[in-house]
Amino acid sequence: MSQEIKEADRGCLGEWLAMLGHLAGWGLMMVGIPWTAIGMVEVAAGNKEGPYLIKPILLLIGGFVLNWLTRQWDHKYEKINQELYRKAREEEIAEQRKKEEEELRRQKERKIERLYKKCLDEKINDFETSANLQKAQLIAKSLGLDEYESKSSFENMYTEQKEKQNKKLQEERKEKLRELKEKENEEKKEIEKYSDLFGREKIIKYFDDLMVEPQKIADKEEAFQKYVSTLPTVYRALADSVTTTRPQKSDWAVAGGFASAIAGPAAGLAVANDIQNKNAQKDAEYEKAKIQAELHREELRDKARKEPEKLLKEHDSSAAYKAERELVKYRRMKEKAEILLVEERNPEELLKMLKLRVVKQIVSETGTVELKVSVRGKQDIMIYENVESVIDGSFEVVLYDENDKKCGTAKVTLPYNGAFDNLVIQSLCTETLQTERKEKYRCTFDKPNLWLIEKIGEY
């Protein structure tokens, strides 16, 4: 049957071929019948010989055969299509029945969950006593769960629901931890985003990032001010575009004269009066339209004067003012950063010059370790003989457990102005997985990406 089903899927081309087959068959028959009749008359009259009838008879037979074959084709595939429809209908009914059964199953599950919760609300934790069992039976009956009567049925229900609730809680916790881990990874990415940059590039990128949000506010304010400044021009242009057109009036004298010549003086007078009245009505409507247009023009001119003032009065520009001040400050610091002197020295030696200590470890639910690292830089470091500088850059904190097994790393990035003072810097290690630890991780410092740079100061 599967092969027949494939054959039945003839598509649009097959339908057209079947139709053409019918048309061709009937066409041959319609040509063959009169040709055969005429031939028989001609043969009987002696005008034609017997073999003359062979062609029309063959044409007639060919049309009949073609029509019969096409009809057989249609009958065959109609039967297959009916079978396909029957199967599709059966599948549809089976699918609907499956959905109904699934819905009934879900309804029953919800009822069983309600039975479990109501038993807990009634403090029924076991079914050993007849009072607990009878109370549970009454609850089950009220929910339409008549199959729950025996002690074993309630015990099985209680066990299954408890396992189901525990599984649900575990899945919820797993999803919560996944979301928390994603958040921690994003935070780690933000903390370490300058760790691979070197020298002036790190500070310039820092101030470029600081300018992003204030620049958005400043751009929005600029767009608003530009919009307000164009309002008067727009409203004045709209006012100038408001015009009225004088209506075209009919010539009452000419029309009255024509009417008088055709139907007499009385008709001419009536037509002239009617046209005069209509012309007067048009003049009145035109004057009214002129007044309305002038009022509308005055309204638009008034908006051109008052609307910008109203918008500016209602607009709060304090955020834009603050953003502009920040942009000025950040641009000034960026300009200073672009000409800072930088000197490369052995990163390992610079790391030894820093006084480093992990002062706090906090382990999250996901096992991520938040570190607070105390950094104290060496003062009075000179570069190019007489230029005061600081150590800048980043380094890694390596975490080991009590068995000296490496558990993960965290990068510490010094601030934009380097190790200028006593600092406490946050860092995250998301590689660790132990969520419950009594012992703190042992920490060492490694892989320095450090350099000396001219002091920039604070902004």
CATH class of the domain at 340-454: Mainly Beta
Distance between the amino and carboxyl termini:
83 Å
CA gyration radius, whole angstroms = 48 Å
Q: Catalogue the unreliable spans.
A: 1-12
Question: Can you write the helix and strand succession as a string?
Answer: HHHHHHHHHHEHEEEEEEE
Share of helix, binned: 55-70%
Beta fraction of the residues? Answer: 5-15%
Average pLDDT for all residues: 83
Task: Give a description of the structure.
The protein is α+β, with helices and mostly antiparallel strands and 459 residues long. The protein contains 11 helices and 8 strands. Among the domains are: 2-105; 340-454, Immunoglobulin-like, CATH 2.60.40. Strand 5 and strand 6 (406-413) form a beta hairpin. Helix 6 (200-210) packs antiparallel against helix 10, helix 7 crosses helix 10 (318-337) and helix 8 (252-263) runs antiparallel to helix 9. It is extended and about 130 Å long. The two termini are 83 Å apart. Residues 1-12 have low confidence and may be disordered.
